[in-house]
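User: Thanks for the earlier help. One more: DUF4440 domain-containing protein. Can you show the sequence and predicted structure together?

Assistant: Of course, both are below.
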Amino acid sequence: MSQSVEQAVKHEIESLHEFFVGWFTGELPAERFDELFLHRMDEEMILIPPAGMVLNLQALSEMLRQSHGNNPAFRIAIRNVTVRRVWPDHVLATYEEWQRNALASEPADNGRISTVLFRRGDALSWLHLQETWLPAEVMAAGPYDF
C-alpha cells in the first residue's frame, strides 16, 4: 500500500475533525462552511451516527449549520487511523473518534469507531461514514486528556 494514500487518509480525517471542533466552538466563521466542509463531501455522502439514523448530505449540512458555535468546550481526538483497503476509485479506512464535552451525545465524553469510504479523485471525498460507539468500559477509561 502506498504511503501517500495512508498519509492522505490520515490528513483528511484529522482535518475534517479540526473543522468540526472549530465549527462547534464558533472559532471558524460561518461563511467558511462551504469551503471547509461541503467541498470535502461527495454529493452522495451518507452518515450513519451511533444512534443509527441515516443522514444524507443535505440533512447533515442543515444540522451542522444550525449548530455553529453552540459548544465552546467541544474537543475531538482522532486515534488509530487504519487504511483497510485501497481500490483505484475508493479507499476504506477505520479510525477512533474521541469526543470531550459533546453536548449532543450521551455520554458527553465518548468514543466511537468509524468506518469511512472515500471516493478517490484529485482529492479524497467522503462518500459513506458509519459510526459505532466503543464499548462503555472503553469509553469510561478514556483517556480524555486532549
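User: Great, one quick takeaway?

Assistant: The mean pLDDT is 96.
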